[in-house]
Amino acid sequence: MSLEEATDFLSAWDRGETVFKIQSSGSTSEPKTIVLERKWMEWSAMQTAKFMHPQGHETLVCCLPLNKVGGLMVLVRAKVWGLKFIVEEATGNPLKEFIDADIISVTPFQIQNILSTEESRKNIERFREVLIGGAEIPEGLELQLRSIDSKCQIRQSYGMSETYSHVAVRNINGLDQSKWFAPLENIEIRKDSDGSAIIFSPFNPEGLHTNDLIELDELGRFKVLGRKDFVVNSGGVKLQIEAIEKAIHEKHPEISKFAISSIKDDKLGEKMVLVCEKKALIENYDLSFLKEINFYAVPKEIIEINSIPYNEGGKIDRMLIKRLINS
Question: pTM to 2 decimals?
């Protein structure tokens, strides 16, 4: 993301352009072009204002890529809310230096890096609102976030490019912290027959079918269990890799920088493996507890690569991992 990109978008916005094109994240398939309508971008910004309560004197920070919905909507909120804003490069740690601002949106990858140093941790704690989106938050990271004083409200958002960023949020720290996402006003989440989420909204009244498998409660709140397309079919046994990753994070929150994936296998078709940056460390852990999820959930092999790749949205680049380990 560059200042030039921000200037181009803001110029188009001020000219009254009514449609804007972005790229989807590409975390599960090849990136595709998505057309966003101005009226729904403005609507989304007003929905966010209902829980963030922006004040006229405040400043937003944009440190997300502007060719994705997350970064673009930060600038839209600044325009709709009438706030000042600061554009920072979308680096792994955008808060190495102090930024005098009040509201920031980051990815789990960025917040993990921010909390890794004392100085940048102090910098994030000065914000009034921190919105984390784009990917699942590991259990170990969530435990760190819960310890942050609620004067700095930490929230996780749920949404996608097609929903004009988030359509549901949950509080991670403070008195109202919850594991359940609550849909925003005028948003309804239903569960399809296969367990996946359908999002009903004013801009998609017929419902947007997703690949996110959810648990839904009687209040309309939900938890994301994983994705339908993140399934390894090993010898006819279907294994949900995000559920396995989450179980490892919960049992051993100190383990980081790993992913569950699969390699081709002559007998099984696909063989589930654990991909990490330091194989020697992972080998010290007993992963047999994963049999509680499924007897076949223990990875058949541990594969070491130089670094776990992430895409611009802060999500693990599962497609790249699969290409690397199958090449």
Answer: 0.82
